[in-house]
Design brief:
The protein is an all-alpha fold and 250 residues long. The protein has 9 helices and no strands. α2 runs antiparallel to α5, α6 (161-202) runs antiparallel to α7 and α7 packs antiparallel against α8.
């Protein structure tokens, strides 16, 4: 049953995590005599506005850099097609397996137009689905924040009276620690993205915003994320110079 309803289960779990992460600012407002309902509303509205503002701020730059990526790939492919036929044995062997630049471009813009349109429609539908799930996540999180005490009493009442105090203490400790961890990781990810963007921009790296966003996301992935971020930055930095690649990777 959990597997069949996994989407709803994950939404509920994420809602509980979000509620635990946003509880401290709500309590901070309540201590300053702001009504609990109004405090919850203010904190969640501020969270949604901040997230939307961040997306609005970085989306135009990311789209612009993606356009530059496509242009640079076309130029690089054309240069490869011109130089590799007279290059090493490996380059000559590889170039025989690649289509000419005009054939490659026509294959993308010609027969595959319908496939590209279908893919775009799928991405649009997926984005709308994600937006709807995010709205449900916010509603569930707000609902939990409002009725948290009631729900805790409800499920604790199903336990043996002798164990309720211990279970309540453990639950509240887990919830508080998890909320602190999520707040810390999100803040560190945001700061990492800002620092990386400034660093890449100062070193003249191509696509600094895309690389900074990848680095910020990689920060949230334990252990493996940092390796992915360093390798990606080194490869892109090598397009400028070996020195730039090493410095930006460091």
């Amino acid at each position: 049953l959990v597997y069949e309803f996994r989407q709803a289960v994950f939404l509920l779990l994420f809602a509980l995590i979000l509620a635990s992460a946003l509880r401290p600012p709500i309590l901070w407002l309540v201590k300053r005599r702001v009504p609990n309902g109004l405090a919850i509303l203010l904190v969640y509205v501020a969270f949604v506005i901040s997230l939307a503002g961040l997306l609005v701020l970085i989306t135009p730059g990311i789209l612009s850099e993606f356009g530059k990526v496509i242009t640079d790939l076309a130029v690089t492919y054309d240069r490869i097609w011109q130089t590799w036929p007279s290059g090493s044995n490996l380059e000559r062997l590889l170039i025989q397996q690649l289509p000419p630049p005009d054939t490659f471009l026509s294959s993308i813009t010609g027969d595959q137009v319908l496939a590209l349109l279908s893919t775009f429609a799928g991405i649009t539908a997926s984005s709308l689905t994600t937006l709807g799930e995010f709205a449900v996540l916010i509603v569930l999180s707000v609902y939990w924040s409002i009725y948290r005490t009631y729900f805790e009493r409800l499920w604790l009442s199903r336990l043996n009276a002798a164990n309720r105090g211990t279970v309540r203490t453990v639950w509240q400790s887990i919830e508080s620690t998890l909320g602190s961890y999520i707040r810390s990781e999100l803040l560190q990810s945001l700061l990492a993205g800002c620092v990386l963007y400034l660093t890449f921009w100062l070193f003249g790296m191509p696509y600094p915003l895309i690389l900074a966003v990848l680095g910020a996301v990689a920060w949230l992935i334990p252990y493996i994320g940092v390796i992915f971020a360093i390798v990606s930055v080194f490869l892109i930095g090598s397009m400028v110079s070996l020195t730039t690649a090493i410095l930006t990777a460091v």
